[in-house]
Write a structure and sequence with these properties.
Chain lengths: ~140, ~140
């Protein structure tokens, strides 16, 4: 687990690279409790609502990938209890894509519970196009 | 709540601060396994992300023939959920606004477990005009 003295501005966090498949998209959707059809699991619905010829991976998959990066950087004892992830989705992610999440420490501020460290986050596909951007944080002591 | 007749969503009628009620479910090992396999992370601690607490709260109140696209998520983690424990989720409409003439709503959901442990808070920024994004992604289909 990273400690306060080990974290410096500009320091990069562990990256992850994920292959997106129909199986992974549908597997993620299967975790839900309502079994609803949506633009992630029904291509006809995606075509009707978005005009796409494919279903989209849930943006929450990218949230989860970013969470993995931050958990590996801060350690689960820190990140699972103080962590945040904030992503804005810029482009669709679909089966066949490869998504790489990277990030770097962008700043820190003292709080009542410790030092809140901010990390800029970037999600890019195999073509180098940015699919999501945002910020993650965690509080270290 | 699940037995209640769904309302047809109307952006104009929805009110900021509207409560979406609460619902409960039990986190199973099967859910955890399916989630971890789907994101290729055997240590993923928040399979609740796959349950989509906020969207589920919305779907238990509203039917939405237009549909939506997730424009962004904000999540705060407090404690990982525990398999076998009941999870209680409370949802609300936190905001609605127009940006570049496109309608958005923000749905918030807070999850605690049966012991009162705060698990996570999740907000989703939903674009309630998904065909606009489709045109942006595929301009040849305009």
């Amino acid at each position: 687990m990273a400690s306060r003295t080990e974290i410096e501005p500009g320091q990069t966090i562990p990256s992850v690279t994920k292959e997106i498949t129909e199986k992974s998209i549908l597997g993620f959707e299967s975790t839900g409790i309502l079994n609803l059809e949506n633009i992630h699991n029904n291509p006809e619905l995606a075509a009707k609502r978005l005009g796409t010829t494919y279903t989209l991976a849930s943006g929450r998959m990218s949230i989860t990938f970013a969470t993995e990066c931050l958990r590996k950087f801060f350690g689960p004892d820190v990140f699972n209890h103080t962590g945040t992830v904030n992503l804005k989705f810029l482009r669709p992610v679909k089966a066949g894509d490869t998504i790489t999440v990277t990030g770097a420490v962008s700043g820190s501020e003292d709080t009542a519970n410790g030092t809140r460290v901010s990390v800029d986050l970037f999600c890019d596909n195999q073509d180098g196009n940015r699919t999501a951007v945002g910020v993650g944080t965690a509080v270290i002591n | 709540m699940a037995d209640t007749e769904l309302k047809v969503f109307s952006y104009d009628k929805v009110v900021i601060g509207e409560e979406l009620g609460s619902y409960e479910y039990i986190l199973t090992q099967e859910m955890v396994d399916a989630f971890r396999a789907s994101v290729d992370d055997p240590e993923a601690s928040f399979p609740t992300l796959g349950v989509k607490h906020d969207a589920t709260a919305f779907a238990m109140v509203y039917t939405d023939p237009i549909g939506t696209v997730n424009a962004g998520n904000e999540v705060e983690f407090f404690n990982p959920p525990v398999v076998g424990k009941k999870i209680i989720v409370t949802g609300r409409i936190a905001d609605k606004y127009l940006r570049r003439d496109k309608p958005y709503i923000v749905i918030e959901a807070t999850a605690i477990d049966e012991n009162g442990r705060l698990l996570e808070k999740l907000s989703t920024y939903q674009l309630k005009k998904p065909d606009e994004l489709g045109k942006k992604w595929h301009p040849e289909q305009k």
